[in-house]
Here is the input.
Amino acid sequence: MSHPAGSPDHRYSESLIAPAVPVPAPAAPLRLGVMASGSGTNFEAIAQAIADGDLQAQIQVVIYNNPGAKVVARAERWGIPTVLLNHREYASREALDAAIAQTLRDAGVEWVVMAGWMRIVTNVLIEAFPNRVINIHPSLLPSFKGAHAIEQAFKAGVKITGCTVHLVQLEVDSGPILMQAAVPILPDDTLETLQARIQVQEHRIFPRAIAIAAHRELTAASTASPST
Ligand code: GAR
Here is the structure.
């Protein structure tokens, strides 16, 4: 029996693996810069969470690297400025990241959110926003890193996969995990149905993981011993 993409399937229940306690809101809205390469459904989930009052934040700018990316139309519907930084026009990854960092700074961004950014980032970006670059990846990291995570999990025959939101480090798809959601792979799944169910979970955890990152930073700062 097959189920249309995204429809409820009562043979399983996805589990959120995260603190169940509410995350305190930040003192001031977090100023986010979103980086996206394609469709932008995760961007939209974050924008919706902000509009619904579930995430105290504002999106200052959306940076995209592929001309014609669908995220642009989504951002325009939300009235959020977009900037095209086409990686094909830069001599190196570092040069692209320098342009991204400058664009983010110019837009007053504090937290960088990679929402389907399909380029490897360098220390140029990571060091411009220390511990403040957040990525979403469609697997339960550290399993299935890279650009084809859903396909890899599907082909490996694992019974459970999912998605992960983590802080970005130089090593690809590594870094402290903020939040994960588990998604079973069902016997009648196709890549499309699996991807659709993973995305449902991505949209649930991403806004919350951003709040967790900000709260962790605040907590760490307030418990750090005062300098003498
Ligand atoms: C998401 O599934 C995200 O996890 C993935 O790209 C998709 C973007 O979807 N990211 C990666 O694979 C990064 N390695 P969206 O454009 O609809 O948000």
About this structure: The mean pLDDT is 91. The chain is about 35% helix and 20% strand.
